Please model this.
Amino acid sequence: MCSSKKCSTICSLDEMSLDGVPSEFLCSSLSFELVNRGLAAVFLLVGGPLMIAIALYTFLSKSGPVLYSGVRLGKAKRPFLIYKFRTLPIEYNKAMGAFIVERKQASIPPFYWFLRETRLDELPQLFNVLRGDMLLVGPRPIRPEVYLRYCRGIADFDRRFWGKPGLIGVSQLLTPSGTPKRIRARLDNLFQEKKNNAQHTMAMVGFTIFLVLRKVMVKGIYAIWRNLIYQKLLKKEKDRRFYERIPQDETIACFQSFEDGKDVTSHWGIVLDINETTMRLYCNTPFHTLFGSIKLKSRVVRHGKQKVKTAYCSIESWRSIKSDDRLFLRCYVVDYSPLTPFSQYIVDKYILRKSMAERI
Model:
């Protein structure tokens, strides 16, 4: 399945025994396998021109090999090689290990980050489906280093190894990339309890194509506006922010004021826009050094019901800027940092709306 050199990092990881696993999770019919491989072949033909264009751009940019191959764990923890379009520098791939990729840390150019955000870098994995390593829909294959570092102690995480991994992962569609593995495991297990048949696979593939096209259009239009119209035609000053600002209309901020280690009062503000590190907000209360933390509350609608999601963050620094709203006396730019992994998940999913299935 993969070379001995590639698999050397997981030589201590034993293959998983599937004894006692319910047969409906282990056995996939020949027709189901043929449907998966047939659809993969069709998508390779239809998406061939796009894949050639991406490969040609990567080749002409002289950024290294066009394709990346890496070891992943498949059914019963058997290792295999997965293929992707290369979006990271070669030296970063070698040093990455079990760490999660962040754009600023890896210095990923805009085009390659676009490929990662829209999941177009995953298209070569259609060859993995065609070869029989993967299915079109199933839990995403995991790096052995990530499994050993983060996932081995999570309850029922190993259920994903009862079947083949998938090109399309339900938890990857519904949650942002930095979501705690425990949450993603629960989503994947819930999906696994529903029988994965040809009709369900085709429905999930259609839904994913819609989400990817929506993401491509939104990100593409934004790039054209920012780089071509705003900067080139209108001659506006270049936006030097590394991360894209996400406008907010349902998010408020609550500041905790502390004296002698005790929570004294709370003050409220309205978040105008936010990115991964910084937010801009209106507030009638002057900031001072006693503000130690901030609660971000975002109102969301799920299944026709309104809910409030709360993230707890620390205030790293802040500065005052001119307010252009008559109702608010002050406007502040606040650098923040989520206090827990779960708060980071709330920020990414409900406030920054990073998951594929979130409204953009």
Q: What stands out?
A: The chain has a mean pLDDT of 82. The radius of gyration is 23 Å.
